[in-house]
Amino acid sequence: MKYRFLRFPEGKTKAVTLSYDDGSNADGRVAQTLTRCGLKGTFNLIGSLVESEAALTKEFIRTEILGKGHEIATHGYNHRGLDVLTPVEIIRDTLDCRMVLEREFGIIVRGMAYPDRNITRDKRPGAYEQIRPILQNLDIAYSRLAGVEDPTFELPTDFLYWSPTAHQRNPKLMEYIDNFLTMDVSAQYIASRTPRLLYIWGHGHEFDRNNDWELLDTICEKIAGKEEIWYATNGEIYAYVQAFRSLIYSADGMRVYNPTLHKIWFDVDKTLYTVNPGETIRL
Questions:
Q1: Tens of pLDDT along 87-114?
Q2: Which of 79, 92, 97, 215 could cross-link with 47 by S-S, CB 3.0 to 4.6 Å?
Q3: Model's pTM, two decimal places?
Q4: Are 46 and 23 in contact (CB under 8 A)?
């Protein structure tokens, strides 16, 4: 049996995504910096702040975030930690936030970042297992954790338990970025040539509080403009990976059918293949 590995659009082996929480006024500067550097981010917004325009204006979100190819996702209507809420409260806080974003911006929102408190298995045993089916029933497809990081650059197996690589203020972040940029995926052991993802998260208001906006510039300029990297939002990565996982193979593994709407790239023993929507190819 040959090894098959996902490759990102155009056959790229690496992807970068960024995620910023709360939707404070400082996130506006973050969005503009990402746009200037050719990066993409997911901005996780608090529904009550969006509704009242207490921070970013709706027009800014339309033009400078959504209009520049970035993404918005839910972060709770009132930014309450899900592990301390009843099931009904989880439903209401999550659904109310989603409905505000969809109503105000005319889009479908399926992403999220867990608000306020982490729900990781080591810190909140059992919490995630209780919350996960609720989010699934609310049609939340992917959600980023806080308080846990994973510098292996592996894609998540469970997108509702999505561990980022590192927080923007992690003292090892620059080391992680260097490791990511210098990694040659094709040179890895044959069973380890998986695609790699660098996922950075944080809050725009931290740059204000620490008066170190140059840190954001340094991060963005360091990872920008690399031909081997796909710069994408959280949602774009989720959709592409799910499409790859939806490919259908013949019993002998030599034919592949793509039932999705995405053109998919994948590697089979260092040979790059593409399969278009609705197409069946022979390997």
A1: 999 999 999 999 999 999 999 999 999 9
A2: 97
A3: 0.96
A4: yes
